[in-house]
Amino acid sequence: MEKKGRVFSGARPTGRQHLGNYLGAIRNYVALQDEYECVYCVVDLHALTTLEDTDKLKEWTREMVLDWLAAGMRPEETIIFVQSHVPQVTELHTILSMVTPLGWLTRLPTFKEKVRQQPDNVNYGLVGYPVLMAADIALYKADTVPVGIDQAPHLEFTREIVRRFNHLFGPVLVEPQAKHTDFPKVLGIDGVNKMSKSLNNHIEISASPEEIWQRVRMMVTDPARRYRHDPGHPEVCNVFTLHGFFSPAQVRQIEVDCRSAAIGCVECKKIFARNLSDYFAPFRERRARFAADPDYVWDVLADGARRARAIASQVIDEVKRAVGLP
Ligand code: SF4
User: Fold this and answer.
1) Is 1 domain-assigned?
2) Pair type for strands 144-147 and 37-42
3) Assuming Cys at both sites, which of 252, 282, 283, 320 could form a disulfide with 325, CB separation 3.0 to 4.6 Å?
4) Residues 177-235: pLDDT tens digits?
5) What is the number of the ligand 1 atom nearest to the C-alpha of 243?
6) Whose CA is nearest to atom 7 of ligand 1?
7) Which of 187, 220, 222 to mutate to test the pocket of ligand 1 (most atoms within 8 A of CB)?
8) Confidence band, pLDDT 50/70/90 cuts, at residue 153
9) Are 118 and 244 found together in one domain?
10) How many domains does the chain have?
11) pLDDT per residue over 237-274, tens digit each?
């Protein structure tokens, strides 16, 4: 089938993925493969800006890619690779940094937020982070980038840098378009904060049925439902929200039974844990198969890097010629 264009997306290596990663990104990554040529990157250089846990980068890369592959990424067609394995990205980063006014970077709310988060380590990489991101996308002439609403300004920044480069040196780079996907905000088991590993409020998609139940039983539900006979308010309950994804056949009945107190929270959570576990059973089986071969992920990433470099070296040659580098 003729593909619509080329998608690029990158994710920091964060190890085993959780439900928030899955619903927010991975399932879209997988679905996009049907219509687009896809380039998916583990952005390990981006992960260096904080200089935390660098000894875990290798392990977290492998664990994340195992999840991607088990979720249905197809390495025989999709390019899956590690950012630092394609050194041309750092060349393009340098060249694009010359066309990016410093004021654009220091004014970005994300930069200001980072300065607040790590005041003792406001490094040069932190300022240039959005330029490296622009280089990631431009290096593969990706025309489409999946983004959630909150990430739209990041992509707009890439588009501005590309426009400026093309204005100065000719139409070499492709201005990527945002593909707004349905990225729901998934709350953690605390029912308050976005699901996140650092807050330890997550449920891993590779968790065993028993591990799933241990996490689900801790989930915060409707705070007004203190006793079993209290009627519930599913609209404020995170378990109910997630039932919407993983229990589509039962969700209407659960809503009715919650409101009338015909079902208790423990029973409701048991249904959810079972459905979640069933949903990811084929995923767990594939993941175990891939993980049994210690070389499999690294072979996939080596092949992906080889294919990525083939595109990158052509583009960087065009860029250098356009700029006038000898
Ligand atoms: S019964 Fe289910 S939906 Fe209702 S409050 Fe309890 S966990 Fe939430």
Assistant:
1) no
2) unpaired
3) 320
4) 999 877 678 999 999 999 999 999 999 999 999 999 999 999 999 999 999 999 999 99
5) 3
6) 265
7) 222
8) confident
9) no
10) 2
11) 999 999 999 999 999 999 999 999 999 999 999 999 99
Q: Give the pair of three-digit tokens for residue 75.
A: 């390495």
Task: Specify if 244 maps to a domain.
Answer: yes
**Residue 57's domain spans which residues?**
6-186+294-323
The enclosing H or E element of 184 equals none
Bridge partners (DSSP) listed for residue 40? 9, 80
Q: Which residue has the tokens 């959780």?
A: 18
Binding site membership of 247 for ligand 1 (Cβ less than 6 Å)? no
270 C-beta neighbours (distance < 10 Å), count: 14
147 is a domain residue: yes
Residues 246 and 312 in one domain: no
Does 240 contact ligand 1 (Cβ within 6 A)? Answer: yes
Q: Does residue 204 lie within any of the structural domains?
A: no
Phi and psi based region of residue 209 (left: phi greater than 0; alpha: psi -120 to 50; beta: remaining):
alpha
Q: What is the pTM of this model?
A: 0.93
CATH label of the domain that carries residue 227: 1.10.240.10
Distance 245 CA to ligand 1 centre (A): 15
Kindly give the residue spans of alpha helices, DSSP state H, lying in the chain.
19-21, 27-32, 44-47, 57-71, 88-97, 102-106, 109-117, 124-138, 152-169, 209-216, 238-246, 251-259, 265-279, 281-292, 296-323
